[in-house]
Design a protein that fits this description.
heterodimer; A: 246 residues; alpha/beta; 4-stranded antiparallel sheet; 12 strands; 32% helix; B: 331 residues; globular
Chain lengths: 246, 331
Amino acid sequence: MSRLRLTGISKSFGAIQALSDVSLEVAPGEVLGLMGDNGAGKSTLVKIVAGNFRPTHGSISIDGDTVDFHKPRDAQRQGIEVVYQDLALCDNLSAASNVFLGREPRRRVAGVRFLDYSTMHRRSAELFAILKSETRPRDLVRRMSGGQRQAVAIARTLLSNAKIVLMDEPTAAISVRQVSEVLDLIHRLSDQGISVVLISHRMPDVFAVCSHIAVLRRGELVASKLAKDSSPEEVTGLITGAIETA
Amino acid sequence: MTTLEQAIDFSQHRTPVSRILGSQIFWVFAAAVLACLALTLLTDSFATQRNLFNVTRNFAFVGLIAIGMTTVIASGGIDLSVGSTVVLAAMVISVLMSTGYPFWISAVAALAAAAAVGLLNGVLIAYVGMPPFVVTLGMLSAARSLAMVLSNNKMIWEFGPDHDLLLWVGGGSTLGLPHPIYVLVFLAAVMSVVYRWTRWGQYVFAIGGNEQAATLTGIPVKRIKVSIYVFSALTAGVAGILMAGWLGSVTTNLGQAMELTVIAAAVIGGANLAGGQGTALGAVIGALLIEVIRNSLILLGISTFWQGMFIGCFIIIAVAFDRIRNLSSSD
């Protein structure tokens, strides 16, 4: 059974058809690379799955149950987490505080509920260990490298027991060494049985981590196949339109 | 021999001593202590009980509001209306008491008036999305005008049946310390804990650090923002009540231009106008330094016209110090 199934998803904004009849499946623990040129509809598709938009037509199902998201909170409740391109972290807070932001554990002392820093530090150290990241819970995010920031953002998704993690260009603005760190993080998520949808422009990154590749062009799905049956050349052709479909 | 790992660890988790030496609060405090020592040696009048009593009481009012202001600044906002909130609260309590109401009822009404100012500020900023500078600038004008309307712009010095109680609360002392200083110490201690150990405190700093991230993680940003402006107005309200009792009379120019001194105290104490940084202790020490400078100029017989120059220099030096520290740590 597929973890995430999109059936006949279409989305139009007024006269503009952003997506037409897109159907996709993602298995548990699978990493799907979603590719396409600017304006091909990648972001729209991700926003529909994340609950930012509702599709004009079509349906979404998770573990076989049809779902209908009206707002991002609905998608979060169903185990969908988004790692944003700008990462949405607070630079002035520690790694642990960022991991737990909005859902801090508290301990009651003399009738007042205080933040439970020891639990926050311990749990986030565990999460960073799962991700095999060297990020330390007490460090300020301001002083961290791009790879460590990614680890913090991804640890947030682990904390909420996400089933599906959507990642928008996680390797766009970081150094080469950090890219491999991030790709390792994606492997760790997959090891935990979490499905990952990776949006990226970087062909080598996609082929390094994705088992499955889907290509969008002008709002239509032109290919959806196993990475091992495809090649960077073919995907480039599909994105530009040199190859019609595959 | 130190390994790379140890070197990194050292640069990120410095020793307690180097952490203290790297903090703005420490240097501001050192400057205040130094000024006090110099004054003790240079003048006969500084280290007298009478003068020290005045200094501690005077800085308490600015310090109280500076804690509220630090909270606003830490969340990435600004509150220019605190000086006018001071006079509004002072006017409400004095008008009510002079018409015969008891102290406690009048004090609650004064705090309610202050809270209403903060509530309006907060709602316009958080829900209507107006810039804090503009909203609180408007309120600076409106609240003082309201205080003038309330009192018909007359001085009030008769506070009805509880007259002596009000003067005792604001101007009296217990165990040799003026009452406002007790309120200040209490508030500074409570807010130090609140900033670090409560969700509310964590969210104030998260909003100041990255408001969009705070929204995305589901923090009720708008409600928290409203509560921040209400809190700031309440600190101004408490200061207004205490000042009414201290002065023994209230006029409509009470608290005029006080917002600038308060912002100066918060910034000297380490609050970052870009948001995300500030401490309650810093606000108190910033206020202390400003009062010591003011007091020392008077005692040294230097024209009070120079006061603004000294305070202005300190604001710029404090912020410059913060810049230099950030530059050296971002290498």
